[in-house]
Amino acid sequence: MEDLFDYSGKTVLITGAGAGIGRACALAFAARGARVCVNSKSDSGRAVAEEIRSRGGESLFLQADVQSPLQVADMVQKTVAAFGRLDVLVNCAGIVTGGSVEETDLETWNRVMAVNATGVFLVCREAMPHLRQTKGCIANISSLVAIKGIAARAAYSASKGAVLALSRAMAADSLKDGVRVNCVSPGTVLSPSLQGRIDAEEDPAKAYERYVSRQPMGRLGTPEEIAAAVIYVCSAEAAFLDGVNLPVDGAGSL
């Protein structure tokens, strides 16, 4: 029996891969034979690429801001120049802000939409010609908030709802070209970003319990659990999966 989820010979580009879900995805793809291009806005992705290489894998660090059309174009070009092809794109780059509509100023709204929604659009637009050549696939990280109302997450919810709608539209547009586009929508995941927000609270223990309390399973998810879902939706075994949203949310969407 052949090994499931074999990515040998495949090139994967992951945005926002310096920490959390993106890092977990990078390590998971590399462990399955993929050549992984690790993107981050800061220098954080460099250590992830080095970790992959230290384990015998192939990896390239690409520092770029997904809000910048020029930096995005350069990132995709360097991916293809380094490895000759692009088979999988995973859009993990994103930021989280709190607040209701009335509590969200326009600057915050624009910043969240620029990273979380426009960033996905820009990277997908640059990657699509290369994915068309390889009959590749895209996994966009949306969120539980795209399908369920969560208090004090107005801008973030709108941005992740946009990612989900865009992914479905792209799936319809690219169906004839053999490029699959799916979403993975995490619930609350204990990532370094969330841990930082918890630690910044006046009572971190109480803040942690507040996040746990909204998860029906009674615990937070892990980045590795989300990465496992991404590995699946991008795999040859999931070739009949297109235009779907896969919630990985500890029953949060029930």
Query: How far apart are the termini?
Result: 36 Å
Radius of gyration using CA atoms only: 17 Å
Number of helices: 8
Q: Can you give the mean pLDDT?
A: 97
Helix content: 40-55%
Oligomeric assembly: single chain
> Tell me about the biggest sheet?
7 strands, parallel
Alpha-beta classification: alpha/beta
Q: How would you spell out the order of helices and strands? A: EHEHEHEHEHEHHHE
Shape category: globular
Brief overview:
This protein has eight helices and seven strands.
Q: What does the model show?
A:
By secondary structure, this protein is α/β, with parallel strands linked by helices. The chain has eight helices and seven strands. It has a seven-stranded parallel sheet with strand order 3-2-1-4-5-6-7, sandwiched between helices. It is globular and about 50 Å long.
Task: Please render the helix and strand layout as text.
Blueprint: E1 11-15, H1 20-31, E2 35-40, H2 44-54, E3 59-63, H3 69-83, E4 88-91, H4 106-134, E5 137-141, H5 154-174, E6 180-186, H6 192-199, H7 204-213, H8 223-233, E7 245-248
Parallel strand pairs: 1-2, 1-4, 2-3, 4-5, 5-6, 6-7
Helix pairs in contact: 1-2, 1-8, 3-4, 4-5
Defining key terms:
single chain, 254 residues, alpha/beta
